[in-house]
Design a protein that fits this description.
- This protein starts with 7 loop residues before the first helix and ends in a 12-residue tail after the last helix.
- The relative contact order is 0.15.
- Strands 1-2-3-4-5-6-7 form a seven-stranded parallel sheet.
- The protein has a single domain, classed as TIM Barrel (Alpha-Beta Barrel), CATH 3.20.20.
- The chain has twelve helices and seven strands.
- The protein is of the alpha/beta class.
Length: about 290
């Protein structure tokens, strides 16, 4: 697979340019509604419990009880052991159940363990599997191994979509982010995702731009749509609008849907709700008016 060199200075300059676009009030509201519909609400803590997951699912279906016209979020992401709880709680709402499998967040477990983890999550009802690549193998140059592992996990997913986490904060250069993006897409990823949220830096606009360009180039060659998910570090509604501008101007309107673009940023949802509340009520609501889960 031919490696593509990325001009980091130019990529960062272009990414920064998307933050300078002027967005009219009417477009701002529709943009915020769209951003909300693209959020994956996530709970990945050792203290996660069935009740916490059920509460998160209620918020996913109805993000703000003060405005029932708002869309549900895209998905709820949990550990495999809690997939059944989330599936039952979400019912026929249309909100997807995503599960981190494959030795999240390290990706260092034996392949057979990661495959079994994936199969169990899918059998429990997961619609999407979020896997992490073995960054150690990738950085050591064993890209064939990484490709084969992704392909094997994709096969284990069956009908579930596969989101491949690159953990871009550990890849360090844009050249390596592009190479990991291309490899993951070639191996069968349905989505490529920046981060686990456990490593800093997580999502940045520059990294996401590089990944969007990989997706665009693949589409132009094959006609196949691949999704992109920046995850971690996106906390403000204003940031989400910047990302949506970047998506529109880099890959086009086809990607302005939760089917092809997601935000892995649970903290983002409440700031989006706060901004939408201001547009609706004319003033900011208090932070405690919005549930954490």
């Amino acid at each position: 697979m031919r490696s593509i060199s990325v001009d980091r200075v130019m990529a960062d300059q272009r990414a920064a340019s998307f933050t300078k676009r002027s967005i009219k009030t009417s477009m701002k509201e529709s943009g915020l509604r769209l951003a909300l519909s693209m959020v994956d609400l996530t709970t990945l803590e050792g203290k996660d419990s069935p009740e916490k997951v059920k509460s998160l699912c209620r918020k996913a279906i109805t993000p703000d009880i003060n405005d029932p016209t708002l869309p549900s979020v895209a998905a709820v992401c949990v550990y495999p052991e809690l997939v059944t709880i989330a599936k039952d709680a979400l019912g026929d709402s249309g909100v997807k159940v995503a599960s981190v499998a494959t030795g999240f967040p390290s990706g260092q477990y034996p392949l057979d363990v990661r495959l079994e983890d994936t199969r169990r999550a899918v059998e429990a009802g997961a619609d999407e599997i979020d896997m992490v690549i073995s960054r150690g193998s990738f950085l050591a140059g064993d890209r064939t191994k990484v490709f084969d592992e992704i392909a094997s996990i994709k096969d284990a997913c069956g009908k579930a979509h596969l989101k491949v986490i690159l953990e871009t904060g550990e890849l360090e250069t844009y050249d390596l982010v592009r190479a990991a993006s291309d490899l993951s897409i070639a191996a069968g990823a349905d989505f490529i995702k920046t981060s686990t949220g456990k490593v800093a830096p997580a999502a940045t606009m520059g990294v996401t731009l590089v990944m969007l360009e990989a997706v665009r180039d693949h589409y132009l060659k094959t006609g196949r749509h691949i999704g992109v998910k920046p995850a971690g570090g996106i906390r403000k509604a204003k940031q989400s609008l910047h990302y949506l501008v970047m998506v529109k101007e880099t890959v086009g309107d086809d990607w302005l849907t939760p089917d092809l673009f997601r935000f892995g940023a649970s903290g983002l949802a409440n700031d989006v709700l706060m901004q939408l509340g201001k547009l609706r009520e004319g003033h900011y609501m208090a932070a405690y008016d919005f549930s954490e889960a």
